[in-house]
From TrEMBL:
Similarity comment: family membership: Belongs to the precorrin methyltransferase family.
Keywords, in A-Z order: Cobalamin biosynthesis, Methyltransferase, Transferase
PANTHER family tied to this protein: COBALT-PRECORRIN-4 C(11)-METHYLTRANSFERASE, SIROHEME SYNTHASE-RELATED
Organism phylogeny: Bacteria, Bacillati, Actinomycetota, Actinomycetes, Kitasatosporales
Origin superkingdom: Bacteria
Top-level class of the enzyme under EC nomenclature: transferase
Gene Ontology molecular function: precorrin-4 C11-methyltransferase activity
UniProt EC number: 2.1.1.133
Organism: Streptomyces anulatus (Streptomyces chrysomallus)
Tetrapyrrole methylase domain mapped to chain residues: 2-208
Pathway assigned to this chain's UniProt record: Cofactor biosynthesis; adenosylcobalamin biosynthesis
Protein name per UniProt: Precorrin-4 C(11)-methyltransferase
Alphabetical list of Pfam families matching this protein: TP_methylase (PF00590)
GO BP: methylation
């Protein structure tokens, strides 16, 4: 058997990948994060599948479920929101499966920042304006940030910053980025990206905190700060340039 860590996407049920949906439909066991994964996805599971909501389980209880399925000879669809590569807490699960000798694979999904960019109808990298995207979060009581990864340090780059898990602390975000990006820097917050209740907030950096609090956004959101969000005058990319010699790499 195999445990499949599947990125279920940012919220809309039809944003799961074809590969993820195929594995989900064939797995007799499914563990899912009930507070984040759309319940509509569970309709893709086999009718007699064993479904377990992991929202209230700790890491040892989750591992026990995965090891149990392995002992029973069942494939497992382990659904995570977004994409497993960022802020997904799959590392500790894979580590325990390695120790238990349980095989697993990772199936990528649509990350929240990509869904947010789609909602904004923006490319996050714009020629001559910005070519770097920083995915990060801020220090909280539960998890500190490594040295050199605080916003004050990252902000010196001037790159587009995408913050996960930070809407509740939007005042801190603004205070730490204002010295580097300026009060007028284009900023956006997208909550529940791709879902029917999606919320999109836009404005200069110095106004975004007020908007976030007025909208009641405290979770399931990404904050984006950077000049590419408002870029209107920029050079076309070389990729499709009219004068480009397409016989040269």
């Amino acid at each position: 058997m195999t445990v499949y860590f599947i990125g279920a996407g940012p919220g809309a049920a039809d944003l799961i990948t074809v590969r993820g949906a195929r594995i989900l439909a064939a797995s007799p066991v499914c563990l899912y994060a009930g507070s984040l994964v759309p319940v509509e996805l569970l309709a893709e599971c086999p009718k007699d599948a064993r479904l377990t909501d992991t929202a209230n389980l700790d890491i040892e209880q989750i591992t026990a479920e995965l090891v149990r399925a392995h002992a029973d000879g069942h494939d497992v669809a382990r659904l995570h929101s977004g994409d497993p590569s960022v802020f997904s807490a799959v590392n500790e699960q894979m580590k325990r499966l390695d120790e238990a000798g349980v095989p697993y694979e990772v199936v990528p999904g649509v990350p929240a920042f990509a869904a947010a960019a789609a909602a904004l109808k923006r490319e996050l990298t714009v020629p001559t304006v910005g070519q770097t995207v920083i995915l990060t979060r801020i220090a909280q009581r539960a998890t500190a940030m490594p040295e050199g990864e605080d916003l004050a340090t990252l902000g010196r780059s001037g790159a587009l910053i995408v913050l996960h898990l930070a809407a509740r602390y939007v005042d801190r975000v603004v205070d730490e980025l204002l010295p580097h990006y300026g009060a007028d820097c284009p900023t956006a917050v997208v909550a529940m990206a791709s879902r029917p209740d999606e919320i999109i907030l836009r404005g200069p950096l110095d106004s975004i905190a007020e908007q976030v609090k007025a909208a009641g956004v405290i979770r399931t959101a990404v904050i984006m700060v950077g000049r590419t969000l408002g870029a209107e005058q920029f050079r076309d990319s070389h990729l499709y340039a009219v004068g480009r010699d397409r016989h040269v790499c």
